[in-house]
Amino acid sequence: MKKIFGITLFFVVCSMEIFAVEPANKSKIDDGIKKSVVVYTVKGNAEEKYNAMMNEQLKSIGYIAPDPRSGVHRVYKKKYGKTTLDGLSFMTIVDKKGIKPLLNIDPSIAAFSPFNLLMYKHKDKNETVISHLTSDAVFDMLGTSNQEVKDGYKKSIEKIDALVMKNFPDAEISYKTYHHRAKDTMMNFEYTFKRSENLMDFVDEIQEKVEDTFEEKGYIMAGFFNFKETFDGSNLLPQMDEFWTFSLCHFKYSYAFFDNEGARPDVAVFAPCTIYMYIQKGSNKLVVGMPRLQNWLSMFDIKDKARIAYNQKLDKEIVEIFKEMGFKEVESTPFNPVKL
């Protein structure tokens, strides 16, 4: 596999529909409205304190940031000559030990693990926002029903919320909300291959093929995470022979949404786009999943027609790229644990 190095900009996609902020002291959401994003609003510019939290304290709760990106707004300014932001950082984080056992039950949870703990600050506002998707929004997009998986994922997310509150005890807490999820929430693909004695020959080949093909199409592979690596010497993924994720980005698209006239850095909670890939124990099938971009059109109030059209264009284009590589699009891939 070609080693993936740090890339400073991300492809992120955004959304449209009902957008609202719920007061922190409101105990009940109106019928039909669901929490999509938790928002911590901090007075002043908290970029330095946020970076210190991520660099110095993340590991203490079992998380790592395999592909951190801080100061993205500075790169935008260098590339395009201007920025509307005083801060923009994408921190793709993963609870490496806590999430692995859940993947043996429902591998699709990897579509939002790693996920982004976003930080941004507008130039014209004396406040910093730290936010992330709620676990309930994740379950809604994935169709997660297994209670053990839901409880485990929520427990993992709660550790992040506790860390943020520890460092920013005066933050105002609010929620963005939505009424309906997208009609089609996931892209699902399968790739059947001839299994040989050395499985890694195929793994290296397909990983390089995916990286190179997307890069040739103008995308960036800005991150990679291998769930099968044994950080603590134990095998927490006995159901899988291989399991990894890519972080898919698009340089031009991220700037179009996050840092120009009418920009919406708040939707960067979806950055970067996570593609998960796994081979179940003894299988000759590579299973691939990625959230469709239209998920984000159901959770934010993006009315700009050009941005919406761009969003829909890439949603279709990503599917076509996978098909060009020989992946078969499927409606879904039910996971049936094998007897070990």
Which of globular, elongated, flat, extended, rod-shaped describes the shape?
globular
By CATH, the architecture is named 2-Layer Sandwich
CATH superfamily: TT1751-like domain
Helical content band: 25-40%
Give Rg in angstroms: 19 Å
Cα separation of the termini: 28 Å
CATH topology label: TATA-Binding Protein
Mean pLDDT: 88
Strand content: 25-35%
Total number of domains: 1
Assembly level: single chain
Order of helices and strands: EEHEHEHEEEHHEEHEEHEEHHE
Structural class computed from helices and strand pairing: alpha+beta
Stretches where pLDDT falls below 50 for ≥5 residues? Answer: 2-31
Labels describing this entry:
340 residues; alpha+beta; TATA-Binding Protein; eight-stranded antiparallel sheet; six-stranded antiparallel sheet; 9 helices
What would your notes on this structure say?
The protein is 31% helix and 27% strand. A hairpin with a 4-residue loop joins β12 (273-280) and β13 (285-291). The longest helix is centred in the middle third of the chain and has 21 residues, at 147-167. With 340 residues, the protein is an alpha+beta fold. It is built from nine helices and 14 strands. The chain has a single domain, classed as TATA-Binding Protein, CATH 3.30.310.70. The chain has helices at 47-56, 72-80, 96-103, 135-142, 147-167, 199-216, 251-258, 294-297, 305-324, and strands at 21-22, 34-43, 63-69, 85-95, 115-116, 118-122, 127-133, 172-178, 186-192, 220-226, 240-249, 273-280, 285-291, 328-329. Strands 1, 2, 3, 4, 5, 6, 7 and 8 form an eight-stranded antiparallel β-sheet that branches. It is globular, with a radius of gyration of 19 Å.
